[in-house]
Amino acid sequence: MPRQFTAAFDLEGPLSPQDNAYEVMHSIKDGPALFEVLSRYDDYLAIRNRPNYEPGDTLQLIVPFMIVNGITEQDVRKASSRAQLVGGAIELIKWLKDEMWNVHIISTSYEQHAYNVASKLDVEREKVHCTRFPLDSLSDMLEEREITLIQEIQNQILSFYSHANDAETSTFGGLATQLDEFFFEIAPRTRIKAIFDQITVVGGKRKVRALMSAIGVGKQTDTAVIGDSITDYKMLQEIRRTGGISIAFNANSYALPYANIGMACADIRPLYLVLTAFREAGLKSAFDLATLWELECREFVRDPRLVPKHALRPELARFFANASDDTEFPRLSVLDKRDKEQLQQIAVIHTKFRSLIRGQETAQLG
Questions:
Q1: The dihedral formed by the CA atoms of 281, 124, 226 and 208, expressed in degrees to the nearest 10
Q2: Residue 364 above 80 pLDDT?
Q3: What is the C-alpha to C-alpha distance for residues 8 and 224, in angstroms, rounded to an integer?
């Protein structure tokens, strides 16, 4: 029986530039500011390894604010309908499926968005692992007391946003203490807890569990995972640790240290070269390709005909020929055994492409 290789993609970033929850929050007054602060709080909790908290649980924390501000599942779908795809995503998924890769999407995204994007990519619904989100059924669960509490903490968040900046860490620490009290002391004693109990976000360790369920026991060495942010780092770390290929695509500094290969590009199709090298000759082959690319990238930009011909589909050859400048040409890096300074230099390149594809505001979210 032939070996079955799996490619598991995060959705927001590698496949679609939209942060759906952030986009949904644009539908209410001060919604983006509210989301940005709570996203920063999510990073704060994840970095401090708060018990029973996983990166990406922002998508749970914002639900009471959605309800109080009248957001519905239709708003989630409407925002998702505006979502674009990352360049080359349709083609890459098709190539992989044609070559019998087992393609999965493992995403924190709400189900309304994840299934919509997956359908555009022709990824089967049963291979999409995402956050179940029955928002409409939760909208009548709050009473006046809870609504007042949510409005009060919302005002505190917005007050912080209007007066603070990223450098004011001590100021944020004060707000974080208030948010800790609200989310972990006050809310659990109210009907807000019942709402939280209905939302299990697929992030952090839960992404690892979803991945292991998708691939089966002992299949890590035949698995590629592709992620870009703090919600992905545990999945990236696990596959790197167990001998698979772990790829940071236009990643931020939360994800890069946990992958073994980095790719920064305005189009995801060049990833096909790395995945093909991995499938045909193992992890070392993928490392060799990335190492060569690092050494010869300037020459490839100057003359795309020098790009290694193995697995170079005609569509990719045309892409390289048309992307012969620094703003579009892909960058590949081996991330294993890089020190902090080297990772920071690679992060600068990823940040440029991340901002180009996702927009400055979305790119800055954890």
A1: -100
A2: no
A3: 6
Are the beta carbons of 281 and 289 closer than 8 angstroms? no
Q: Indicate if the alpha-carbon torsion angle 207, 130, 210, 263 is positive or negative.
A: negative
Return the ∠ at Cα 113 (arms to 74 and 78), rounded to 5°.
35
pLDDT in tens, 18-51: 999 999 999 999 999 999 999 999 999 998 999 9
Q: Over range 282-299, report the average pLDDT.
A: 95
Q: Does residue 273 contact residue 289 with C-beta atoms inside 8 Å?
A: yes
What's the pTM value of the predicted model, to 2 decimals? 0.94
Q: Is 316 exposed, middle or buried (0-12, 13-18, 19+ CB in 10 A)?
A: buried
For residue 12, the 8-state DSSP code is B
Token pair 């530039």: residue: 17
Q: Residue range 154-176: average pLDDT?
A: 77
Q: Is the pLDDT of residue 232 over 80?
A: yes
Cα→Cα distances 276→10, 70, 122, 216, 284, Å: 19, 47, 20, 21, 12
Compute how many other C-beta atoms are within 10 angstroms of the C-beta atom of residue 288. Answer: 15
Average pLDDT over residues 92-101: 97
Q: Which residue has the tokens 């450098």?
A: 167
DSSP state of 164: -
Residue 195 buriedness (CB in 10 A; 0-12 / 13-18 / 19+): buried
Residue 141 in contact with residue 194, Cβ under 8 Å?
yes
Structural domains in the chain? 20-86+108-196 (1.10.3870.10), 204-359 (3.40.50)
Angle between helical axes of 89-98 and 271-281 (0-180°, round to 10) = 20
* Number of other CB atoms surrounding residue 215 within 10 Å: 21
d(Cα 341, Cα 148) in Å, to the nearest integer?
A: 47
Q: How far apart are CA 281 and CA 270, in angstroms?
A: 18
The whole-angstrom separation of Cα 244 and Cα 274 is 12
Strands 223-227 and 128-131: unpaired
Q: In which residue are the tokens 């609504």 written?
A: 147
